[in-house]
Amino acid sequence: MAMFEGGTGALPAALIQCLTEHGGRVRTGAPVEELIVTGGRVTGVRVKGGEDDRGQAGCADRVQPGVGAAGYLLPKGVLPERLRNRVEHIPTKGRGISDYKLNLALRGRISMPGTRSGAATGWTCGCVQLLPRLPADPGRRGGTAHAGDVPEHIPGLALAPTAFEPSMAPAGCDTFWFWSGLTPADPRIGWEQARARITRR
After folding, report:
1. 69 with 128, same domain?
2. Residue 13, in any domain of the structure
3. What distance in Å separates the CA atoms of residue 130 and residue 99, rounded to the nearest whole number?
């Protein structure tokens, strides 16, 4: 598992620096409605309200559910009909299961006195796989999530990024990440309740 020095935000910060050094600018809070395409290249964006911003690169963080950014933001006629049809039907929920990521900023340090090192001031590894008591058949866990239910046990991978990069938190504090690939893509109880239940479990 790799990460950027200074944390995940270091990547967009570097991209912004590169953009501004080449005469570009960054706009936030301006939802992109459509990419402007000239001569087969994206030459600008059309933001909400009809304003054109030519010569600027656009990035949309919210697009129509189930439709890729290419299908939602490109003007009609840019993609061949067959390719556009494929883009508009990308099976984002085809497996019925989804990834889940939990990020925590902690007020103190994580200690693992039961580990081989016994050190309370840091991790020798920083990464641990969490495998609680699970049914023998992994298909049962996937089947539960596929049916839209939150599994009773949620295995995953836990990581303390500050074990590798202390600058990602204030002195004396840790960050904690947890990832699982066995959560429902479309939970029956809705994402607000599902998120709380998954986090608790």
Report:
1. no
2. no
3. 15
Instruction: Give the domain extent around 75.
Output: 29-88
Q: How far apart are CA 15 and CA 26, in angstroms?
A: 10
Answer whether residue 141 is part of any domain.
yes
123 lies in a domain? yes
**Residue-wise pLDDT tens digits, 107-123:** 999 887 765 544 444 44
pLDDT in tens, 64-94: 444 455 567 888 888 888 888 888 777 777 7
Structural domain count of the chain: 2
Instruction: Say if 10 falls within a structural domain.
Output: no
59 and 109 both lie in a single domain: no
